[in-house]
């Protein structure tokens, strides 16, 4: 119960941080977003890497046959909203990547709205899909949004990362050596032009002390992600007078539909290939949760539309509204399902 309460409070705190940023707004916030995204937000991706390692060592992916359906659901769930964006906007930008990312912490917060029986059935699938979704998002960030490569800094970052991996593998107690190496790897990678999010995940994958994972989740949930959300919100407000791009706003708002279609089809197909049967209702709910996008989507929006504040703000506002729509849809779906199952009882 304490975990559910903390998850809900973190989700509420994230919403409040974003709203506060939008209401305040200040000049120079776009620069602050870029710096924070390059040098501090990698902590969030370190957590993603640790989560991925945990899933393969003791979680849902221990049974390797569990990989097929979530992987296909994640792939379809990325492709469908991207195709909708391209069909609607077709501006040649990398904005198609904005509606592809699913937010794991926010999704888990929304999941607490459901009854325990529904949560226990949906949570492992959503965790698995969101984990693969994060990996795909990292590939997109690394391939699409890395700038011109600076070989010296790239080599320095790679050397620091390799040394860090060796220490974690053979001398994990030397944290006082590993920590500066991890920071050096992130700093050098940022200067090299490569997206630091990928390095963050690799650091998390290599990290040997799983007992620190909860502490990092708390740090990310209560500080790193809310501060990033505040800065993003603050960067939107000063430029709102320039208006919004209706096509981009609509395309991003369509992400819940794209995620529902993609994840439902991909998950059902994976189940049919693996088991010969599927639980379509569960995949539908996972698809609804998949429409919640925040941290990675906001990061991509800032990278994809650096040269146009109007387009950038449209993508950010569309992402926030689409996430709100997905949360409401999820609540309506689980409430309706519970009322049908127990007409005379309160479900939530």
TrEMBL record:
| Membrane-spanning residues | 71-88, 94-114, 126-145, 151-167, 174-207, 227-254, 283-303, 315-334
Q: What GO terms fall under cellular component here?
A: plasma membrane
Give its localization. Cell inner membrane
Its primary localisation, in coarse terms, equals membrane
Q: Which Gene3D superfamilies match?
A: Na+/H+ antiporter like domain
Q: Which UniProt keywords apply?
A: Cell membrane, Membrane, Transmembrane, Transmembrane helix
Q: Name one GO biological process term.
A: regulation of pH
Q: Name one Pfam family in it.
A: Na_H_antiport_1
Q: How does it sit in the membrane?
A: Multi-pass membrane protein
Annotated InterPro entries: Na/H_antiporter_dom_sf (IPR023171), NhaA (IPR004670)
Q: Molecular function terms in GO for this entry?
A: sodium:proton antiporter activity
Keyword Cell membrane assigned to the entry: answer is: yes
PANTHER family membership: NA(+)_H(+) ANTIPORTER NHAA, SODIUM ION/PROTON ANTIPORTER NHAA-RELATED
Q: What is this protein called?
A: Unannotated protein
Organism from which the protein derives: freshwater metagenome
């Amino acid at each position: 119960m304490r975990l559910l309460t903390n998850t809900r409070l973190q989700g509420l705190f994230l919403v409040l941080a974003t709203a506060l940023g939008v209401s305040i707004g200040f000049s120079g916030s776009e620069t602050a977003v870029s710096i924070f995204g390059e040098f501090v937000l990698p902590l969030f991706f370190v957590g993603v890497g640790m989560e991925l390692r945990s899933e393969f060592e003791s979680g849902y992916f221990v049974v390797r046959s569990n990989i097929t359906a979530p992987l296909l659901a994640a792939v379809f769930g990325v492709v469908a909203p991207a195709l909708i964006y391209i069909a609607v906007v077709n501006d040649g930008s990398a904005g198609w990547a904005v509606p592809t990312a699913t937010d794991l912490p926010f999704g888990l917060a929304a999941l607490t709205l459901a009854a325990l029986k529904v949560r226990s059935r949906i949570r492992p699938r959503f965790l698995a899909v969101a984990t693969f979704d994060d990996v795909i998002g990292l590939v997109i960030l690394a391939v699409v949004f890395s700038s011109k490569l600076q070989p010296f800094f790239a080599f320095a970052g790679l050397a620091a990362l390799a040394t860090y991996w060796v220490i974690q593998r053979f001398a994990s107690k030397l944290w006082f050596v590993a920590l500066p190496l991890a920071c050096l790897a992130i700093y050098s990678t940022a200067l090299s032009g490569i997206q630091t999010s990928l390095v963050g995940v690799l650091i998390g994958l290599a990290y040997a002390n799983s007992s620190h994972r909860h502490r990092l989740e708390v740090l990310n949930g209560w500080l790193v992600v809310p501060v990033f959300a505040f800065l993003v919100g603050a960067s939107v407000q000063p430029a709102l007078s320039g208006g919004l791009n209706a096509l981009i706003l609509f395309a991003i708002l369509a992400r819940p539909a794209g995620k529902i279609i993609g994840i439902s089809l991909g998950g059902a197909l994976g189940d049919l290939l693996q088991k010969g049967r599927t639980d379509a209702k569960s995949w539908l709910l996972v698809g609804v949760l998949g429409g919640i996008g925040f941290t990675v989507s906001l990061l991509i929006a800032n990278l994809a539309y650096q040269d146009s504040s109007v387009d950038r703000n449209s993508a950010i506002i569309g992402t926030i509204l689409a996430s709100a729509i997905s949360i409401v849809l999820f609540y309506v779906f689980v409430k309706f399902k519970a009322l049908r199952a127990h007409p005379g009882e309160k479900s939530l």
